[in-house]
Design a protein that fits this description.
This protein is mainly α. The protein has helices spanning 8-22, 29-40, 54-64, 71-77, 88-99, 107-120, 126-130, 135-145, 147-150, 159-170, 187-191. It has eleven helices and no strands.
């Protein structure tokens, strides 16, 4: 943990506020600020640089938060980089899925696809792994960045399960044997509340 973060919840809020002062007013500013603040404060489950390579992360910072990439921010976001080969194919499939449904041509959507894919490789609810404040923030970012994909989640399935289900269906793999989600014994695991 960096000198920037002392108490994770309090400091995440302080770091978030510091980033938002520099925000350009783009749609993804708040989501990226939440993720960066949570990572810098030692929370969430994101890898260094939010799963981006350092050059891409620096571009993200210049694009969304000009002048905010001070040494303390960079130290707080950095860390031991693990091998990108670990589950790399899976991660790339997730990125491709999201990019097929991106809203436009913003580099922010590309960064978001890579960040969300990195979050999918962690073990908690996706919004928690990403370092967002709540599930509604995740739903909003999915709708903003990948609207046609988000539009498929008509029953509000948990996002990580939904993304993997989309990958399986694209490959013709149907692991669920129930005729519909509503009668499945795992319904609450896929659609229940996230705490």
């Amino acid at each position: 943990m960096s000198a920037l973060a002392l108490d994770s919840e309090q400091d995440a809020g302080r770091i978030y506020a510091r980033l938002m002062v520099r925000a350009i007013g783009a749609g993804n500013d708040q989501a990226f600020a939440s993720m960066i603040a949570t990572r810098a404060a030692g929370g969430g489950a994101m890898p260094p640089w939010l799963g981006l390579n350092p050059a891409a992360f620096h571009c993200l910072m210049r694009h969304h938060f000009p002048g905010a990439a001070t040494r303390d921010f960079l130290d707080a976001i950095a860390g031991e980089t693990t091998s990108s080969e670990v589950r790399g194919d899976e991660r790339e499939e997730l990125v491709r899925l999201m990019l097929m449904h991106k809203a436009g041509d913003s580099p922010s959507e590309v960064w978001m696809a890579h960040v969300v894919a990195a979050g999918c490789l962690a073990s908690d609810h996706l919004w928690q792994d990403l370092g967002l404040w709540n599930r509604a923030d995740l739903t909003a970012l999915m709708r903003r960045n990948f609207p046609s994909l988000a539009g498929r989640n008509v029953n509000d399935m948990k996002w990580k399960r939904f993304l993997y289900k989309q990958l399986c269906e694209a490959e013709g793999i149907y692991t669920c044997r129930a005729p519909s989600c509503e009668v499945c014994t795992d319904y609450h695991a896929c659609f229940g509340p996230e705490h």
